[in-house]
Write a structure and sequence with these properties.
By secondary structure, the chain is of the alpha/beta class. The chain folds into 2 domains: 252 residues, no CATH class; 74 residues. It is built from 11 helices and 7 strands. The strands form 2 sheets. It has a 5-stranded mixed β-sheet with strand order 1-4-5-6-7, with helices on both faces. A two-stranded antiparallel sheet has the order 2-3. A hairpin with a 4-residue loop joins strand 4 and strand 5. Helix 2 runs parallel beside helix 9 and helix 3 packs antiparallel against helix 9. The longest helix has 37 residues. The chain is elongated.
């Protein structure tokens, strides 16, 4: 989707009908619950790691959630299309061949060449190919848009975004032939077909991202020809977050060996203190017989030693006794090194 077309459609979006979010809420909630349940099942099927223990299931849960959430973003448009008359969303069969000859034309950045770039669609391309996330067709306006969803576009290198933009441009040139061949000879004029990379993080994007073809959630209202599509995505994010917390609580409850980090610290401190006391008592017990023997041998000399000498011997004995008690060195491992993904 070019920047000019995006601005024009955004200006006209205020005249579009509004989507009833309350009507969508049950289906969006069911999508969020199904996504989390699928991720929970994947986490439970993970074999227990010998180091992480039961927390390895939590690690798998968090890692797989981002992948499954990305797939759920594509399914939201299916739900929206069921509630909007004249809106069609196609998500299967969107595999397009990437011809190196066309790639060279696209990278030339010639507007005249891009405007007239059209090619036939090969359902089983040989060589490099690209699969789009969805094709949105608005029969009310006779327009179509090829979309690519990204959970957070700002984390993707610019070179990768440019590559996706090039592939979308080549795929756009094949959409008209694809619809005519595979979808009951549906006819959409080539000039009415656009493309867009949708950033689903709902963050404010710098201008350089729009130059690459990346647009925020609000652009979905203009693409679908109905308002509140972006709000449906925001609502799904809230529902997904609540379901994620529910799944996390279930895993922690099932993981009987899972111990919070605060409890681990207390256990380590108690173990260190116990070892210190045991070692100190062991050293004192080992030194006690030697002290007793020395004291017995000195009894024969007590009658011949003055009171001053007795006091001196007593002080000397005390010094020797204190010297046998070796203080336990300061343990630098009091603050334990922590392993695992979450600092646990």
């Amino acid at each position: 989707m070019t920047k000019t077309n995006q601005n024009d459609t955004a200006a006209a979006a205020t005249n579009h009908p509004a989507l009833d979010l309350e009507a969508l809420r049950p289906e969006l909630h069911a999508l969020a619950r199904a996504t989390v349940n699928k991720t929970l099942q994947q986490a439970r099927n993970t074999s227990t790691d010998p180091v992480l223990g039961c927390s390895s299931a939590l690690a798998t849960y968090c890692m797989m959630m981002s992948r499954n959430d990305g797939r759920a973003l594509e399914q939201i448009l299916d739900i929206v299309a069921r509630h909007v008359e004249g809106l069609i969303v196609i998500r299967t069969g969107l595999k397009f061949g990437i011809d190196q000859k066309h790639l060279g034309l696209v990278q030339s950045n010639s507007s005249a060449v891009l405007a007239q770039l059209q090619s036939d669609h090969d359902p089983d391309p040989r060589g490099p190919s690209y699969r789009a996330d969805g094709l949105v067709i608005d029969h009310n306006t006779g327009k179509a848009c090829l979309v690519e969803f990204k959970r957070q576009a700002t984390t993707i290198p610019t070179t990768r975004l440019n590559q996706i933009a090039d592939h979308l441009t080549i795929a756009r040139a094949q959409v008209s032939d694809l619809l005519y061949q595979k979808h009951r000879r549906m006819k959409i004029e080539p000039e009415a077909i656009s493309w867009a990379i949708i950033d689903c993080s709902d963050q404010e994007l710098p201008p350089r991202f729009q130059d690459t073809g990346v647009f925020g959630l609000d652009s979905l209202d203009a693409i679908c020809g109905v308002r509140n599509v972006a709000e449906a995505y925001r609502l799904t994010r809230e529902l997904m977050a609540a379901e994620f917390r529910r799944g996390e609580a279930e895993l922690m409850e099932e993981s009987q060996r899972f111990i919070p980090s605060q409890t681990v610290d207390a256990i380590v401190e108690a173990a260190i203190a116990t070892e210190r006391l045991a070692l100190t008592a062991e050293i004192a017990q080992a030194a006690a017989p030697a002290l007793t023997t020395k004291a017995a041998n000195s009894d024969d000399l007590k009658d011949h030693v003055s009171d001053q000498d007795v006091s001196d011997n007593a002080g000397h004995h005390t010094d020797q006794h204190q010297a046998t008690i070796i203080p336990f060195p300061t343990d630098r491992r009091t603050v334990r090194r922590r392993f695992g993904m979450f600092g646990t």
